Amino acid sequence: MLKTIRYFLKVQDWQSLAVLALALASTWTCLHFGLVADIPTSLIGLAVVFPIVFSINSAYKRREEALRYYAGLKTHLVALYWAHRDWIPSERQPAGGLDRIRRQIAGVLADIRADLQARASSPEKLERVYRDFSELSLANEQARQVGTSAGEVSRANQFLSKAVSEYERLRNIAAYRTPLSLRAYSSVFLNLFPVAFGPYFAHLIHKNPSFPYVGYIVAALYSLVLVSLDNIQEDLEDPFDGEGPDDVYLDADRRYRQVLQQ
Q1: Most CB atoms within 10 A, among 24, 80, 126, 205?
Q2: How far apart are CA 85 and CA 107, in angstroms?
């Protein structure tokens, strides 16, 4: 229960307080000046809730794709390490070869994390990742030179190629997000909602004289629900920034260190 409350509080921010204050102030103003109207609440769903929920669904699908691609990246890199460990006989293994492969794989995972978590696209970080991949490609060529069969080297290159492909898919997820026009539309209507529906909340107070606070309570609930949905979408929007509870953890370079020692 405490964990649920903690996650709920995480999706509240200054915008929650601002929209809540606007909703309450708008309700009081409309009540004070007699601006009362029974506005159809379906407008809220059409103008605000539907676009936000659509954005949440889109962001969630992107997160699930990111999990799948990151799993593929780790799988292909571990398979590449096993290829160098098992397909090259120990007597032909270059001095320090396995240690170098371990460092290179850990290095590419760390550099991928730095690239995906960057606030803005960085050519330097991209170049560093591809330099790591290039070193792994050279390691495959060295395996050929010590007598590894052409078929096994080809398979190792396939592992590397697939790892590069998964990385590029992850970069696309980081770069291309929910359409900006849809996000702008949702934000505008979310902030207009408290003022626009002030007459409706005032109408609830007029309609229920025995419970004069009902309009303020409903205004507060609507505000918190809508802003919470917007913040949830914002957290899911970038699954790599490390700020949301549902982000993709990109720490495989640390967590897989023991796997690469086997």
Answers
A1: 80
A2: 18
